[in-house]
Design brief:
By secondary structure, the chain is of the alpha+beta class. The chain is built from 11 helices and 7 strands. Helices cover about 45% and strands about 15% of the residues.
Amino acid sequence: MPQKGAVLVRSQLIELSREFGQARWAILGEGNTSGRVDEKVFAVKSSGSSLGTLTEIELTECYFGKLIPLLDRKSVPEEEVENVLLASRVLPTTLKPSVETFFHAYLLTIPGVNYVGHTHPVPVNQILCSNLGASFAEERRFPDEVVCCGPVSLLIPYEDPGLALAVRIRRDMQSFERAHGRNPKVILLGNHGVITIGQTTEAVRVAMAMTVKAAEIFVGAHALGGNISMPQSEVNRIENRLDEEYRRKMLRV
């Protein structure tokens, strides 16, 4: 019988996944979600399943310890990657976990990160498939984008999905933390999609929704003649205002 914690994580992931899918931020088998059950195990969407209609059997529980060691290997044959993905399952009868399970495993080991969401929203990918990705990641256009997404996002150039992407995410996350003294709330993947991370599903949900809104505004602003970003001094001011910190607590972000 599943642990009480696992039941809660799975129910929250199903709710979050369906919301993302029904918003059409991911279609068909796109995107994935995950949640940490305990120090050894996490649940992740199975390969090929749809976020919008995700069911209980389409969440697969995996062992961190089977997956994380591969991130330290310089070269891993594709067949071995597949074998490790299957071997990582807590129950061998469950469905194959997503190809992106490696980056979920890494992100869920970061202190304070209990949930991860990954989607491919059209407004965001319009930017990430253009030469304006750095501007979108590094600038902010309105106060609530700062509150919900942080003062800056991490932009990662296109990388092969799967183990290679997980290795790149870990490297760039560590560089970001050294440069900014914090982890990003939003990770933008060039020519691919967006990842949001947080302590709760609400934090993941809020950051994802605000990223999509910001992308729509960004695209529209450029269509009307050009993006006007907030001055960095104002971004810093919003990030550190006491009343905005209260709002973050109310929004659970």
